[in-house]
Each structure stands twice: as structure tokens, then as C-alpha cells.
Amino acid sequence: MLQIEQLTKKFGPNTAVDSATIEVNEPAMIGIIGRSGAGKSTLLRMMNRLSDATSGKIIFEGRDITSLKGGEKRRWQSECAMIFQQFNLVPRMDVVSNVLHGTLNRRSTFSTMFNLFPSEDIHRAIDILDRLGIAAHGPKRAEALSGGQQQRVAIARALMQDPRIILADEPIASLDPMNAQVVMQSLRSIHEEDGRMVVANLHTLDTARRYCDRVIGMRDGRIVFDGTPEQLTTGVARDIYGADDSFNEAYTSTEIQTLTRVPA
Ligand SMILES: Nc1ncnc2c1ncn2[C@@H]1O[C@H](COP(=O)(O)OP(=O)(O)OP(=O)(O)O)[C@@H](O)[C@H]1O
Ligand SMILES: [Mg+2]
Prior knowledge:
Blueprint lengths: L1 E10 L2 E11 L4 E5 L6 H8 L7 E6 L2 E2 L5 H10 E5 L10 H6 L8 H5 L5 H13 L15 H14 L4 E5 L7 H18 L2 E5 L3 H7 L2 E6 L2 E6 L6 H7 L15 H6 L3
Bound molecules: adenosine-5'-triphosphate and magnesium ion (MG).
The site of adenosine-5'-triphosphate (ATP) has 11 residues, from strand 2 and helix 1.
């Protein structure tokens, strides 16, 4: 389904992603872990073509994604929607309009300028918000919502594009543990119920283990682990994070219980 072959990104002398090769044969839910600077965001940005690879290839269902240009590139970008740590909503705009912006890439400049949305799109936006449990907030300004609610609005906006793949760059890094779990559960149900592929950069091991079918570990731009949550033992994790024996998994945890056990 998706082949990433020897994908490399250099920034000057610095190699952010170093010959990454990943093969995905079914629409899995994949977590990417690794310490800060390991190349996780750069990898996602290349997949979505926000950033161009220095070398290597991305093939999706036989199509060479790395060489797409113009309209074809934009079409790909709507097939693989991206969500971010900071939600990237328009804060003063109402929630429903924020979600409707997920359809902008297929609307005319004219209707965009005058904020004219077809009623079927409005109904779809509300249905998606309902599915994510936040339809009641539809008329509110995005900035009036909690972080977890705002991230669900961002997921709703992504779903408006009806994407094949959802790329999530640290989707829960700004959220408290409760909201983090709600957002991860939303991504998991979108994966299970709709059969969409989800690729999420995650800071916390337990989140990757609990919600993902497959975990990829990056270190210094290289893929150093690719396996199931069961194979991701503490020893393997220590290696991915380049940590010594003092490495404590709890420090990378979103668990409320675990958090209370970690000394301040
Ligand atoms: N636009 C850029 N220009 C120059 N260097 C960059 C750029 N973007 C990323 N880098 C470098 O590439 C490397 C990988 O960065 P990247 O943001 O992909 O890491 P990350 O794993 O997402 O880290 P974090 O967990 O902190 O988000 C880092 O050394 C970073 O400094
Ligand atoms: Mg990052």
C-alpha cells in the first residue's frame, strides 16, 4: 500500500532523515517514537509533501508521491491530512467553519471568498463533530474550547477531506492526560471504523503501545526499530531514546496513575 524507500532529508550538512525505509501493507495505525530531533516531524512532512525529500521515494498504491507537482500534489495533500500539536485552527472563527475549511482545496476561490459552503458540507461537518462528541460546540469560537476539544475539531477538519491517511505530529503533546486519551481514542476509532491509515508521532511510549498496531523508533534520522507494541520492550525503548540504565519509562508516560507515581 505504502512504500517509503531510502527516504533522506538533509539540511545543509545535517541529515534529519537518513535512508528511512518503511513498508506498510494494510491501513495500520502506526506510532513513531524517538527523542527530540530524531527526525519524526521531518519524515511526516515529507510524506505529506510539505517538505521535499533530498533523495529516496514514497510510493502510495503504485503512485510516486515524491514526484507529484501542482494539482496532483495538492490532491495528494488532501488524501493525507495532517494534524499538529498546536491544532492550527482559526481561533476567532466558529467551530463548524473551522471544520468546513477542510473542504477548501476542492472549492472555488469565489465561494471561498464569500464563505459560501454547500448545505451538504455543513451537514457533513456537523455529523463529523457529532461523531467526535463535540457537535454541541459547533457555534462557538474555536478559542473558547479546551485543548482536547480543539484537537478534535482539527481531526474533524481533517476528516472533511475524507483522507486515506491521517498524519498526526505530536497530536497530544499539549494536552493533559485525560484529553490525550480522548484524542487518541478518536484517532483509533477513525482507524478501526473507517479503515484509514494513521501515522502519529508520539512522545510517550505507553500511548504508542496502547493505541498503535505498529511502532517505529527513530534515532538520529535512522529507523532503529520497527515492530509490534509487544516487541517494544524497555530495553529496546532505552536504545531508541539513547538512554542509560537510569531511563524510566514513566517519564514518557501519559498515564494518570503513572504520573502520580513519578516523583516531582
Ligand atoms: N527547516 C529546517 N532547517 C534546518 N534543520 C532542520 C529543519 N527542520 C528540522 N531540522 C533539523 O532536523 C533534525 C530533525 O528534526 P525534526 O523536527 O524532524 O525532529 P523531531 O523528531 O520531530 O523532534 P521533536 O520531538 O523535537 O519534534 C533536527 O536536527 C532539526 O534541527
Ligand atoms: Mg517533531
